[in-house]
Specification:
Layout: E1 2-6, H1 10-22, E2 26-30, H2 33-39, E3 46-50, H3 58-67, E4 74-78, H4 83-92, E5 96-99, H5 104-118, E6 125-128, E7 131-134, E8 139-142, E9 145-146, H6 151-162, E10 168-169, H7 170-177, H8 187-200, E11 205-208, E12 212-215
Parallel strand pairs: 1-2, 1-3, 3-4, 4-5
Antiparallel strand pairs: 6-7, 7-8, 8-9, 10-12, 11-12
Helix pairs in contact: 2-3, 6-8
C-alpha cells in the first residue's frame, strides 16, 4: 500500500512514516496542502490528512481534491475531535476520521479497511482464483496451502490482488514498494516478480508487454 501523509508536525510525521513502513506500507510525506494537491493523484492507495495544516486547511484540501474527482480514500487525522469537525470533514469528502493520539495498529487497520472497500472487498481476506491473502494476519495461501513469502513478495502479491483485473505498471509497483526519495533500481521489479512467480505459479502473473503485470483471471 502506498500512502500519502499530509502533516506539518515534522516529528509526528517522521514517526507515522516509520511506523507505517514497519507495517509493510510505503509512505510519502508532504507538510502542506498546496504540495499535496500536486502530489495526491500520483497513484496512492490512501491519503492521511491533518486538519490543522498551515495555509490551506486539511478540510479545504479534502474539498479541493474531491472537486478534482480524486477518488482515493482519505482519512483525516487531527488532535481535535469535536463532532462538528468530524461532520465537516466527512461532508468535505473524507472517508474516515481519527483523533490523535492513535495507536499504529488502529491506523493500519483503518487504512487497510479503506483500501479494501475502495478495491471492492468487504473482508480482510482477498481472493483471486487459487490465491488468497489476509491483510490483517499477513498470511497468504495458494490452493489453501500456506505460502512462505518475504515481506516484499507479500506486498507485491497484495498490490496485485488489490488491483486484480487491472495492469500494474512497473513504475507503479516500484512506487508501491519503495519511497520516491530512496535509491531504486527498476530491475528490482522484474526480479521480485520472478521470485513471486516461482512460489505462486508462473502463469498466475501475466506480463503485459510494454505495460507491466497483472493477475491472471
Amino acid at each position: 500500500m502506498r500512502i500519502l501523509l499530509v502533516e506539518d508536525e515534522a516529528e509526528l510525521a517522521q514517526r507515522v512514516v516509520a511506523n507505517l513502513s514497519r507495517h509493510g506500507m510505503t509512505c510519502e510525506h508532504t507538510a502542506n496542502g498546496e504540495d499535496a494537491l500536486d502530489f495526491a493523484s500520483d497513484g496512492f492507495t490512501a491519503l492521511i490528512v491533518d486538519i490543522g495544516l498551515p495555509g490551506m486547511s486539511g478540510i479545504e484540501l479534502v474539498r479541493r481534491l474531491r472537486a478534482r474527482a480524486l477518488g482515493v480514500p482519505i482519512l483525516i487525522l487531527t488532535a481535535r475531535g469535536s463532532w462538528q469537525e468530524k461532520v465537516e470533514g466527512l461532508n468535505a469528502g473524507a472517508d474516515d476520521f481519527i483523533v490523535k493520539p492513535v495507536r499504529t495498529e488502529e491506523l493500519v487497520a483503518r487504512l487497510h479497511a479503506l483500501a479494501r472497500r475502495a478495491a471492492g472487498h468487504s473482508a480482510t481476506r482477498l481472493v483471486a482464483g487459487a490465491l488468497a491473502l489476509d491483510t490483517a494476519s499477513g498470511e497468504a495461501w495458494l490452493d489453501d496451502a500456506p505460502l512462505a513469502l518475504t515481506a516484499s513478495e507479500f506486498r507485491l502479491l497484495q498490490m496485485l490482488l488489490y488491483n486484480a483485473g487491472r495492469t500494474l505498471t512497473r513504475a507503479a509497483i516500484l512506487d508501491g514498494l519503495y519511497p520516491v526519495d530512496t535509491e531504486r533500481d527498476a530491475n528490482t521489479v522484474e526480479v521480485l516478480v520472478g521470485r513471486l512467480r516461482r512460489k505462486v505459479g508462473r502463469d498466475r502473473i501475466m506480463t503485459m508487454r510494454g505495460m507491466g503485470y497483472r493477475l491472471a483471471p
